[in-house]
Amino acid sequence: MSATKEKTEKKKLKMAVYWASACGGCCVSVLDVHEKLFDVVAAADLVFWPIALDTKYKDVEDMPDGSIDLTLFNGAIRNSENELMAVLLRQKSKILVAYGSCSHLGGIPGLGNMSSREGIFKRVYEDTESTENPDKIHPQPVYEIPQGRLELPMFYNDVQPLSKVVCVDYYIPGCPPQTERLLEVFNAIATGATLPAKESVIGAYEKSQCDECKRKKTDNKTIKKFYRPWEIEDDGETCFLEQGVICMGPATRGGCGVRCIEGNAPCRGCYGPPADAPDPGAKMMSAIATMIDANEPEEIEKIIEQLEDPVGTFYRFSLPASILRRKLL
Fold first, then answer.
1. I need a surface site. Which of 102, 166, 203, 238 has the fewest CB within 10 A?
2. pTM of the entire structure?
3. Could you tell me the domains of the chain?
4. Which percentage of the chain shows pLDDT scores above 70?
């Protein structure tokens, strides 16, 4: 290769993907780029992705600081291994992205904050219907056996989003993020395009899901009764809230293509709150309060009591990053 060609040929990015406490859907969403994967591979070399490459943690430790151009970190911080890798990948990465709801806001694992470490262990290792553990043995972080010392990551009492442990450059929301949004962000980084200010949510819109939703809405929303989705026959056209079904659309960023709503299911809130509403649960409860069609306190309370699992409804993806953060025990 000539020196001139070497100069003009663009250097490939070094990219990492890590899976902390999450279900794995975010890693699948990276693969969901399908044939566009060839474009990604042409622009970037994957240097660390535990589910796809046999790269050890020691290999990452040996990399120069700042040598990874882009890391997509998915999953919440649930244990000491998650935190260790968050700190290490922050040190090695130029751009660290909290990728997906769990990394962004705490996600589904964050609902563990409704209990304690001891409560979770007691349920899992003592009380489940299929458990036989008469000695009530729980996992220990260190266990000595004749052959040596066995170690497990420390299970933390609280689930935290990535930003509570290290500085995050950008957030790509979603459970999982939509592939189109990932490609947009990746292409912007690969081509050197101007990115938003650090700590911005990217790959999503500023406006709410309601601005994208095509369902029919009126200005006079009133609710006499709340329903769970299976309790009514959705007409496929009317706003879910106007049918009495909780839809998190008013308190959730757009950008997903309203896929749940297009599939006749209410929005669950996985894209996180719009910029003007940092706490989605508080915004949604405020919105619902203005819709309840009742005047007497007793009637209002009776309607509110119809809401099943308020935390799981309003903070399904965001409890650790909310103003509540966890249940007081």
1. 238
2. 0.90
3. 8-109+158-201 (3.40.50.700), 115-156 (no CATH), 209-321 (no CATH)
4. 97
